[in-house]
Each structure stands twice: as C-alpha cells, then as structure tokens.
Specification:
By secondary structure, the protein is of the alpha/beta class. It is 36% helix and 26% strand. The protein has two domains: 104 residues, Urease, subunit C, domain 1, CATH 2.30.40; 256 residues, Metal-dependent hydrolases (TIM Barrel, Alpha-Beta Barrel). The structure holds zinc ion.
Length: 406
C-alpha cells in the first residue's frame, strides 16, 4: 500500500485534462484504490510530495530497442540511414551479450523517462527478441515486443528465410502471448521492401485468425514509396498491405506521411492504427504528417518515439514535437498530453487498465519534480507538454511496482 500527497494531472479526453492540486493518490496490490483531495486530519501517514506532479505512466507505441545506441547518427534519408547505421547495428544483436546489454540500457532509459508501456521492435534474431522479453520481465516493464521480419532485400547477416521468419514468429507468439499480464507479442514485418508477399500473407492470416497485434511501417519516404510501387507492381503503398491482409484494427502503421486521400480512406475502412513519430520524421527529412486529414477520418492516431530515428525516449519531448511538426494545424496541450497517455492506451485497447489515474486501473504512473518558478494552474498542462521533458522524473511505477527511483 502506498499513499502519497501530491498534485495530479490526469487526461480526461482529447480536449480536457484534470488538474488536482494537493491530492492524495493511493494504490494497493497494484491497483489505484484512493484518489481524493487531501483532507487534514483524515489523510494520515501520507508520503509528502507536494513539490512534484503525478501523471499517468507515459506510453510509447513505436520504438526500436536494438537501435537505442545509435540515436543521433545523422543521415537525412530513410534508406541510406538504414543501410549505413541501422542494419550494421541490428546485426550486432546476434551476439547475446550485446543483445542483453542494450536491452538493459533501453528499459532503464524508458523508466527514467517515465515511460511505463512501450511497443517495441527488436533485431531480426529470435534470441535477441527472447532476451528483450526476459529483461522486460525482470524489471517489470509493460510492453508489446516483436522480432523484426526481413526475408528479402537485405544483406545475408540479417536476412531470414521466409519459413524461418514465419515459424520463429509463431514460436515467439506462443511463448509470450498470455505468458504475463504485462507482456505480449506483436508480429513485426519491418516494411514492404524487406518482406515478401508470401511472408506478409502468412503473418497476416495467422494474426487475423488469432486476433494478434501487428506492427509495420507505411509510406515514410518518397524513395521508399517509389521502390515499393516498382517492386510490387501496385499503384499505392497501402495496396500492398491491403492485398496481403495486413490491415486490421490491431495493426499499428508507423509514419503514414505521404498517403493519398484514397489510402487514408482505406486505413479508415480497416480501422487500422497509426503511430505518428514526429521527431523521427524530421530527423530523416521524411516529410510532414497530415494530422488534420487523418484525424478528420476518425483514424486512431497514437504517438511513438521511433528511437533511433527519434532522438529520445522521452515522450514529453515527443508531445511537444507533435505540435511543432505541424506547420499550420494547432494541437492543444490537452490533446498532446492525451496522445501520450490515455489516447495511446485506447489505441492499444487497454484503456480499462492504464492510461489515466483512475480508481480500479493498474497503478502505472510517474512523479515529476516541478521547476522552481511558479506556474499558474491554467498553464500547467502547457508547461508539461512544452518543456516537461526538462522536469526531473523522480519515480516511475508499473502495476504498483517501482521500476525507477531517482
Ligand atoms: Zn520505426
């Protein structure tokens, strides 16, 4: 049982945030059981943390564990960046010692940034994926983790045979799906260029039959798109995924920058999810995400760090980038905060368990130290979303367990 006197900031919906100054928040056995304004004489034995704010644990719906150590290696074009930086780095995860060390660093950095839930790609090696699961389990992370799939157009160190990629994915799914309340497996074809039609069809069929999660990348870069159209003989990138059955309500498509109106309508038809990764899009000079057009179609838009093309795991930094990377369209601080908390939880279908500080939900939260300058109450959410990444994370808790303490 923990009972803490602090200030809470809680998402209500896309346009509203609740601010509770001098509140008491408590949890027992990993579940919130008391959230109430502080009452002198009644709320005894509280930990006093009035110089901090308590927010829901942050959620990152798109990131690459095995790239964590190559953040900031500049190469402003996706395919060149993959060849020069990413593929050689991911090949290093063949070595189990390397895979373990980078997984340890990655999860520690996630928790130090206040992130409690993440959706992760690992390198294209089953053992590296298993190591990521075991480190996640050891530290109590909440995560969807998948082995990256590549059965074509990549060098011999990384390429998998189609059967191997499919069979190993299934083995990992059976081993980790439902093995823990905090962890799940997500099928992870990298992108169309590196996956054959046969592999994508098999993965899609299995995932659909088992209502499993899928993640991939879509329409990130103009050269990538031109290559996809030529390789698959289609009119649009989205058609490739539609034809093989990869578009489902449990498919997370990263980027979706250069979609035509018809492609956006197709994604809406299948109710697929979008991972918007603004920092990555500008690091690689991929282009500007058409938030307004996609949002107007009621598409489920979430936000991801996309490390290592994204430069940090800090989701408060990415909330700012969601705003900054729209040249004209304005997103409110309430919307930004919603995206990295409750919005991402809804996208993952787990808003009954996480995403906000509410009675009966699992105790995923973090405490941030307030800066010394006074911030008016009506500017707190704005401060949090525009420079909250500078607020020191004091403690991160997942399902009631402290996973990070400053
Ligand atoms: Zn990515």
């Amino acid at each position: 049982m923990r009972k803490i006197r602090t200030n809470i900031i809680n998402p209500i919906d896309q346009d509203h945030t609740f601010i509770g100054l001098d509140y008491v928040i408590a949890w027992d056995d990993g579940i919130f059981n008391y959230i109430h304004p502080y009452q002198a004489g009644k709320d005894l034995d509280c930990e006093e943390r009035l110089d901090e704010i308590c927010i829901p644990g942050l959620i990152d719906i798109h990131t690459h564990l095995s790239q964590y150590w190559i953040r900031g290696r500049y190469e402003p074009s996706l395919l060149f960046w993959l060849e020069k930086n990413v593929f050689p780095e991911e090949a290093l995860s063949q070595n189990p010692d390397f895979a373990e060390k980078i997984a340890e660093d990655f999860f520690q950095a996630l928790f130090a940034a206040g992130t409690t839930t993440s959706v992760i790609y690992t390198a294209p090696y089953p053992q590296a994926c298993e190591i990521a699961f075991s480190v996640a389990k050891k530290y109590g992370a909440r995560a969807w983790i998948g082995m990256t799939l590549m059965d074509q157009n990549v060098n011999s160190e990384l390429v998998q045979s189609t059967d191997y990629a499919y069979q190993k994915s299934l083995e990992l799914y059976y081993k980790y799906h439902n093995a823990s309340t905090l962890l799940d497996y997500i099928f992870s074809p990298r992108f169309a260029l590196s996956c054959s039609v046969i592999l994508m069809e098999k993965i899609a069929r299995f995932a659909q039959d088992n209502s499993a999660w899928i993640q991939t990348h879509l329409s990130e870069n103009q050269i990538e798109i031109a290559n996809v159209l030529q390789l698959f003989g289609v009119d649009t990138y989205t058609q490739v995924y539609e034809n093989v059955g990869l578009l489902t309500p449990k498919t997370i498509l990263a980027h979706c920058i250069h979609l035509s109106s018809a492609e956006m309508d197709t994604l809406a038809k299948y109710d697929s999810c979008i991972a918007h990764c603004p920092d990555s899009n500008f690091f690689l000079k991929s282009g500007e995400f058409n938030y307004e057009a996609l949002y107007s179609r009621n598409l489920n838009i979430g936000v991801g760090s996309d490390v290592a093309a994204g430069t940090t795991l800090n989701m408060l930094y990415h909330s700012k980038m969601v705003n900054y990377r729209q040249s004209v369209f304005s997103l409110s601080p309430e919307r930004l905060f919603y995206h990295i908390t409750l919005g991402n939880a809804i996208l993952l279908g787990c808003q009954d368990k996480i995403g906000s500080l509410d009675l009966g939900k699992e105790a995923d939260l973090c405490f941030l130290k307030l800066p010394p300058e006074p911030i008016p109450v009506d500017s707190l959410v704005s401060a949090l979303c525009f420079y909250g990444y500078e607020f020191p994370v004091m403690e991160t808790v997942i399902a009631g367990r402290t996973v990070y303490s400053r």
